Amino acid sequence: MARIRAFENAAEIASQGGVSAYGSSAGAGARVRGPLHLSTGQEAVPAGVCAHLRTDDYLTSTHRGHGHTLAKGADLARMMAELFGKASGSNAGKGGSMHIADFSVGMLGANGVVAAGLPIAVGAAHAQKLQGRDAITACFFGDGAINRGPFLESLNWAQVYGLPLLFVCEDNRWSATTASGPMTAGEGASARADSLGIAGEQVDGNDVLAVDEAAGRLVREVRARRQPRLLHAITYRVKGHVSVDAAAYRDPRELQQALQADPLARARSRFLAQGGDAAVLDAIDREAQEEVARALAAADAAPWPAPEAAFTDVQTTGAGLWR
Amino acid sequence: MAVMSYAQAAALALAHAMEADPRVVVLGEDIGRGGIFGQYQGLQQRFGTDRVIDTPISEATILGAGVGMALAGLRPVVEMRVVDFALCAMDEIVNQAAKNRFMFGGQGRVPLVMRMPVGIWDSSAAQHSQSLESWFAHVPGLVVVCPATPQDNYSLLRAALDCGDPVVYLEHKTLWGLQGEVDVQAREQLGSARTVRPGRHLTLVSWSRQVHACAQACEALAAQGIAAELIDLRSIWPWDRAAVLASCARTGHLLVVHEAVQAAGFGAEIAAAAAEATGCRVRRLGAPRIPVGYSPVLEAQARIQAADIAAAARGMLEQTR
C-alpha cells in the first residue's frame, strides 16, 4: 500500500507542469503526460488480493491499474519510466499509464476500455483449464463495468465452463464523473454474480485485513475447486476520474467522510493499537519514498524511444509496414 | 490432389493444423455441429469438446476470450458466424486484439484467427449480407484475408494460423459449395496475389467472390478483343502492391472491383496507390452506398455482375482512345 501511494503521489506531481483542462492531457511541461487515473484511497484492494496470487497467476486490470500492477510484483522503476514515455519503460513507451503491463509477472495489461479486461481474463483462465495448469486468473474491474455487456457475458462463460477465475469488483462508487449508484439497478456486483450461481462476497475494501482474509479464502477456493468466485470490495475514489479532474461535481462532505476511512491510516492505527512499533511503519514508508525517488531519477535520465520504434511490434507478415 | 468444396477445404486446413499443433483450439457458436455453413464439419467428433468449443451467444467474449487464450499460449480460431455479427465484438477486435502487441511494448503476441464470413447471402437483407473488409484493413495490427477458391481457403487458413498476429479471415457466404482441387502441400505467404489470367490492355483487381464475376467478365472482354489481366489479391492487408503496380505499369489501366460499398471501400486505396505510383488510369466498381435489400429486385441493386464489370472495362478503354 505504501509503495502504491508513493508511486501515485509522485506520478501525480510529475504530471503537473503546464496548462491543462479536464479531459485533456497534462500540459507541455509535464514529465508524465496523458490521462493519469489514480487509485489513491483504493490501495487495500490490490494489496489484499494480490498477496494471494503467485507470479504464474494471471491478472487483468482497468484504466486505474497502477496499484494492481505493483501489487502483482511489477518493477516499479520500469513502470515509472513507462509513465514518462521512455524507452526503458515496461511497455517501451508505447502504452503509458492507461496500458501499463508486465507480462513477466503475469500482469496482462491495464485497459483503456471499461469492462474490456473481463473477456480477456476469461480466455486466460480457459487456457489455464485446457492446459491443466494449477494457476488461476484474477480480474479487476470497477463498479461502472458491471453495467457493460462483457461483465454479464464473462460471468456466464466462467460459470458455464468452470474456470479458475477470481472476479474482483473494485467499487469506488464513481463511473468517470457520474455517481454509480443511481446508474445501477439492483444490489450490484455480488448480487449479479449470485444470480448466475457464482458465489460472491462483499467486503470493506478500505480494510486491508478484511480484503486479505476474504481474498485469501476465495483464491484458495478458486484454486482448489476450479470454479469462479467474485469479490465485491467497496472502497472510494479519493481523486477525480483523471488527475486533472478536480471532481468539483462531488459533494465535499462525501470526500471528507471517505478520507476518515483511508486504508493506510486505518492499517497504521490498527497496527499501533495492537502494540506494533511505529518505527517499522516509518521504515516501510521511507523505503517506498526512496524507491520512488530512484525511479523518478532513472526515468528522467532514460532515453526516449527511437522514432522508428513506432513501426515495430505492429505485426509481422513479411510484407513490411506502410509509411 | 483431391477435389473438395471451399467449406471442406477450411475444415481440412483446421484439422491438419490441429493435428500438427496441440495449441490450436476453435471456439464459437454452433461449431460443434459443424458450423452453420459446415465449415467445421467433423472437427468436434475428432478433437473433442475441449478443442472445438461450443460457446454461448457472446460475440464480445468469444473474441475477447480468444485474445486471452492467445496471450496464455494457445492459438485460437474464433467463429463470428457472419461479419455482421462481429460488430458485436468490435472493441475486442479493434482495441484489444489489434493493439495488444504494440500497446504493451511487444511483451505479448496475439496469434488469433477470426473467421467472419462476408458478402451478399440470398435474401438475407441488411444485417446478413455486408462486406466490411475495408473496416478491418483500416486498423493497424490486423491482417485481412479474403480467399476466393477452395485451394486458397486451405492454404491461406494454414498461413493465417502460422501468422502469429491477429488475422481477420473473411470467407464468402456463397462460396461454401464451390468445388476445386486442393493441394495440401501448397504453402502460401500472406500478402501474395495470384494472377488468375494474364492480359495486356487492362488490369482487373479483385478478391473474394467478385474474382469469379471478374473471370466471367474477362471471357466476355476477350471475345471482343480485349485482353484483361485479372489479379486475385487474396489478402487486402497486406496487399500485393508489387504485383498490382507492375501490372498497371504494363497495361496503363486499372479497374478495381469489389462487392463492398464503393464509397470508402478498399478499391479506393488500391486505385489511389496505383495512380500515385504509376500514373495509370484508375476506376473503381463497387456497390452503391445502400443497405442490402431483402427483395431480389432490391438486392440486385447492390450486386456487381460480370456484365457491369465488362461494361466498366470497355468504357474505360474507350475513354482513352
From TrEMBL, chain B:
GO molecular function, one term: oxidoreductase activity
Required cofactor(s): thiamine diphosphate
The organism's place on the tree of life at top rank: Bacteria
Cited SMART domains: Transket_pyr (SM00861)
Keywords, sorted A to Z: Oxidoreductase, Pyruvate, Thiamine pyrophosphate
Gene3D superfamilies according to UniProt: 3.40.50.920, 3.40.50.970
InterPro entries per UniProt: THDP-binding, Transketo_C/PFOR_II, Transketolase-like_Pyr-bd, Transketolase_C
Residue intervals of the Transketolase-like pyrimidine-binding domain: 4-178
Name of the protein this chain belongs to: Candidate pyruvate dehydrogenase E1 component, beta subunit
